[in-house]
Each structure stands twice: as structure tokens, then as C-alpha cells.
Amino acid sequence: MNDKNVKDPAPSAVSRRQLVKYAGVGATLVAASPLAGAAPAAADDGADRTQGGGSRRRVWRAGDHHVHSEYSGSFDTSTNPPKFQKGGDAVYPIVTNAIMAKNFGLTWAMCTDHGGPTHSKVNLEQAYPDLLRSRILVPEVLQFWGMEFDAPALDHHTLMIPHHADEAQQLFELESRFAKNDPFPADPGRNTEAKMIEFLKAAKDMRQKPLVIAHHAARSATGLGVYGQDTPREFRNGNNTAPEIYVGFEGAPGHQAGPLNGGARGGYGSYPTHGGFDQMTARVGGLWDSLLGEGRRWWITATSDSHVHWTRGGSDFWPGEYSKTYVLARQDYADIMDGLRNGRIWVGTGDLITSLDLTADSQGRSAAMGETLSVSRRKRSDVDIEIRFRPLAGKNANGDRPEVQRVDLIVGRVTGPNSDLDSDTNPTTKVVARFGPRDWRKQGNEYVIKYTLRNVESDVYARVRGTSTDEAEPLADGLESPWDDLWFYSNPVFVQVR
């Protein structure tokens, strides 16, 4: 079903007065926020503002697929069935999150609330009607339906449902059948890797195919490469089962405002993030590169994981205030999901830049992020890499004018499936070039970097990162302000030698 023809069911018995009252919660928060009006100048970022015909063009559109609302609540299990209480963990109405997402330049977002005993019914009967109201009140932000899935044997994951007439029933089916915390009384049989594989197989067989993305993947790690709930083996097994469903993990987790209240960035209390990014992503030649080196289409994203704003004692920024996931897409649900599924994604923090393009060219052919460039073995296989980025014109949400100090080009070999499912390194992956301001030239509102990979004789991938710092490699995070430590990362472009 083409999503542009789908109309959301009308919220039952909702009058104009009720809608205005409902919207007022979010509007009051925006007005009261010390950051109100501090959103970056979104009009210069290359993204269409959904006006006129431009919403049908593929441009970079900023979003956030991991946000919590008041439906991340608590359960009184002294009764049967358990009694749900809103606001036990996160506190903001769904519409408030949408209003703040719009305020900080997002065009798509998703509330991903925690599960719990019988939470599938809470989602279906309480949260979903509120989402429908929020879609009416904030139409500028495409608001996906889904949840923070209690993945069997793993930490939390995004479960994003395609936009269609039966989206609420689809989530109810998956959550009630497979979420490890949904049964009451608890069922230990739900919390096994076999159940996770069963879930992925069921999702893969659905006509409307969801997306699954791991959250804060190394938050439970106790050291570098000493993983906790999420392991390389589980990622490989899941991706092997459903490669078009299970497509990646958060490169930059949420809770980035933790240091502003004396906590750890991302809530990573045992082993820290590096430059705000999970060790699985930040370490060159680490787990992400190990997966890419197998040729896996495994992507990274960046989210807020917003529960409670740091100015109210939490550890969070609003959706889009600090972290953004950019997807090359039209302004419609299906194309945004297609971009997430196929790696047309780059991520950034602190609005260090507002657009990023990475292309590989050879023998008259070209490929961009998420795509594959094929070159011939019989011809000279030089591959020209072009990096284009646009700095922020104006101030970010902290009132700063961040500047890019360096851009790194990272290249690794693609050698095929690894027999060691626990492998978390790719020794072929290197920073092949570092670029400073003297190395890029201005072209309109963008800066352009060009580099040639000479005599490419085997399959490779290339990816890019950049920073506002002078750190050669992102350092382990302490209590420094996240606003002083900004990074962006592209997803890879692949080169296949035939």
C-alpha cells in the first residue's frame, strides 16, 4: 500500500476544544523552555520545509527514531491485570515531543515507549489514539508508530511500523507475541535468542515490513570489547535472519545531556562513550567496521532517547536539540523508511553541519551513501571520493557557532562473511586521509573535499567522520560539556570490483 493514500483513523470523539487543550501542553512547554526559539536556522540546511512541491524531492531530512512519552510509565502488578500509570519514567505527552521536534528542525520523529506487562494493550488502546491526535496537531512532523521493543535476550531496540491503515494492529501483534516483558505473569521463555530470531522471522514475513534498530548497544559493556546484553554474535545472527528488517544500531545513543547534571554521557556508567558515540561505532576498525567488512548493510543512527529534559533534572535533550539522524528522502513515511532501510543516512551532534554527501566515482559510474559502485578489474580502478558538507549558518541550540576542525576519510576492505561470529575488529580499516580547513574549497554554501583511492583491486567501503575538536581519535568521555565535543559520521559507500 502506498502510504500517501493512507488516511489516519479519526481520533474518536475529539472536539476542536479538546485538540486545542491537548496542544496547549506542548505549546506551554515551548514557551517556557529556555531554549525556545533557539533552534538552528533550518532553512539553510538543504532540507525542504514540506511547503509547495518540494516535499516530493529527496533531500536530507532530519529526524529521531527514539523518543519517549508519558506512555513510558509504570505498572502496578498487585492487580490482575496490572494497572498502568502514565509518566512513571518519561513525562511528556506525545504532542509535546512533536512540537519540540518541529521547534528543533526535525521533519520526522517517533515515540518509542517502554513495554511492560500487558503494555501491548496500553499502546493499542491509549497511546495510539494520542498519536493520531498529535499527527493532526503537528502535521509538519511525520510521526511514526512503534515502540522501544523489549528484545528477547537483548537490550532495547526500535521497532518502527510502516504507516498504513492497520499499523496499530501490527504493533499489537508483534509486541503481544514477542516482547519479553509483555506477558503477565512473566514468561522466562520469552527472553531467549531463539525467541528474538522467531520475532525477526515473523517480521520478515509481514507484507508491511517493520524496521528494527538496536539502542545504546554497548551501554551494558564493562570495558572496551567486553560486551553486555548486546553481542556481535547476536547482531550477526539477527541480521542473517532478516537483513531487510534488522539493519543497524545507534552510533550515538541518547541521554547526551547527562554531564550537564553530573552524569555520564549516554548513561554509559561502566565504559564510556567516545565523543558521544558508542564504542562499537567510535573505534576505527572496531565492531561496526567488522560488520561492514563482511559486506553487511549495517547502518548507524543518532537519537535523543528523550525522557526528561536536563533543565528539569533529567539527562536528555529534546528531539533534534542536540542529535539528528538525516535521511535522504521525500517527505513521506514510506520513503523515509526506505532511506533508513538502505543506508541513505548520516548523523551529527550539535548541528556542527547541516548536510553531508559522500560519493564514489569511477569509470563513469557513481554511488553515494548506502549504495555500491561496481568497477572492472580489467581497467585501472582509481576511485574518486568526493565529500561535501554544509556548515551551520547561524547558532545551534546552545547559542554556539560550531566550526568543523577536521574531516577524516576511513576505508576498509570487504572480505566476506567471518567464520568467527564474535569478531569485533577489522584490521584493514584505516583513516586514509585527514583534512583541515586548508584542504577543502568553498562551493556555494558547501565545502568540497576530493581524494582519489589509487588502484583499487579488491572490494572496499569508505565512510567519513568530522569533528569540532582537535582529537585525532575521539577520546573517552568524562564530564565535559557535550556542546564542546561535536562529531558527524556518514554511513558507508561500497566499492565492488568485478
UniProtKB/TrEMBL annotation:
Residues 38-58 are annotated as: Disordered. Residues 1-38 form the signal peptide. Keywords: Signal. It comes from the Bacteria. This is Phosphoesterase.
